[in-house]
Amino acid sequence: MEYYRNKIDVISYEGVHVDAESLWQKKGDLMVLADEDQYITFPFDENKFYKVRI
Question: Which of 26, 40, 46, 53 could anchor a disulfide with 33, C-beta 3.0 to 4.6 Å?
Fold first, then answer.
């Protein structure tokens, strides 16, 4: 699975503020926040995310 971090603060599709440097998983063109308590999504944008190794 590919993991990414967001470079800037974002507002998710669900209206949730997500701080920069949060951990995400890429699923197609959709980013899903790596948080077991909530399902938070945001569209992938290579200018807003960078790939990381876990």
Answer: 40
